[in-house]
Amino acid sequence: MASSALSGTHHRLLLPCFLRRLPRPRSRSCSRLRLAACHADTLLSSSGAQGPPSPAACSSASSAGGFSDWLLTNGLPPGKVAILERPVPCSRGGKDRPLHFVAAGQDLEAGDVAFEVPMSLVVTLERVLGDESVAELLTTNKLSELACLALYLMYEKKQGRDSLWYPYIKELDRQRGRGQLAVESPLLWIESELDYLNGSPMRDEVVVRDEGIRREYNELDTLWFMAGSLFKQYPFDVPTEAFPFEIFKQAFVAVQSCVVHLQKVSLARRFALVPLGPPLLTYKSNCKAMLTAVDGSVRLLVDRPYKAGEPIIVWCGPQPNSRLLLNYGFVDEDNPYDRIAIEASLNTEDPQYQEKRMVAQRNGKLAIQKFQAKRRKLFLKCCHT
C-alpha cells in the first residue's frame, strides 16, 4: 500500500511525525473486522465520552504527537520512520477510531536501520522486578513474563500522568490489543462472535488460554509480595483487590499482542515491550525483519525496500495461523508455517489390528496418532511398512 512521499523536513526525521489520513480501505464482507475494533479501553481507561468525528481526528493526531514527543524527550535518536494513521470501520457505536502505525518516513533500502529504541525506553522484567534472580524464580514457577508485564502496566496506569510510561500506555490503550487489521484476539470476543469458531479446535484453545490467564491472575498476589520493587511502590494495592479479573485479562491480551521476544539477552530482558514495535508495526509470516537487541538498544533493520508512507513489516515468528489468531487477532494467507492437526487411528475391528499396531509401535507411532499437515503439502509423512 504505497502512499505519497512525506513533505518538508519530516521525511528525514522521526518526530515530530507527519500525521495524515490514508485513503479509506474498501469495505470487507467479513463483519468480524468491523465488530472487533470497538471493545472497551484496555490499559488506560477513560470516561467513555467520545467527541464528534472532527475533534476525534484532532485528538488522534495530538495523541501520536504526544507519544512522539515523549520518545524524543526520553532519548530516542532520530530515525527514518513516521507514525501515520488509517481509518477503521467500526459498527459498535458507529464511530471511526483511526489506528496508528509505523511507516517509512522516507524511501528505504533493504538493510537500512529504520529506528533504534534505547533500552531505557523498553519495558522488561529487569525493570519491573529489579532483580534478575527474582525474575527467574517467578517466571519458571507459576507466572509468565506476560503476567508480570501486564501487572506492571496496570500499576503504572493507576499513576496516570505521573507515570513515566503514561504516553506509551496511552498509545497501547488506543490500539486495544488490535493488530493492523483492527481485530482483537478471540480471547476478547463476545460470546456471539465466538460462535464463529464452533466446530473448530480454536474454540477449545480459547477456553484453555482463558483458564490459564485466570490461574495467573490468582497468583498475582504472590508476585506482588515477592517482587520487592512492586511491594515497595504499591504496599496497599494488593493486585487481586485493586484489579478485577477482566481488567487483568484485557491488559494481558494487550501485552500478548505487542510483546517482543529478544534473542541473545538475559532472561530478565527476553520479553520486552518496545515503543514503535508491535502493534504499531505490521506482522507478516514471510519476511525476515526482526527487532534485535544491539549495544544497549533495540534495532530494526528492514528486509526490503520501502517507499515513504508504506507500513513497516516485521516477522511474527514461525507460528501457525491458529496461534496468530489467538495471539494477535489475524491470520496470514501466505503463512508458510501454517498447519493443521489431523488425527488418524487404526480400526479396532480390523482382523489385523494387533499386527498393524505392533508395526506402528516399532516405527514410533501409536494406534491413535496425530499428524501435523503443513501448508501446501497434500500427503502426510507416515512410516513405511
From TrEMBL:
GO molecular function, one term: protein-lysine N-methyltransferase activity
Listed GO CC annotations: chloroplast stroma
InterPro entries assigned to the protein according to its UniProt record, in alphabetical order: SET_dom_sf, SETD3_SETD6_MTase
Protein name: Rubisco LSMT substrate-binding domain-containing protein
Species in which this protein is naturally found: Triticum turgidum subsp. durum (Durum wheat)
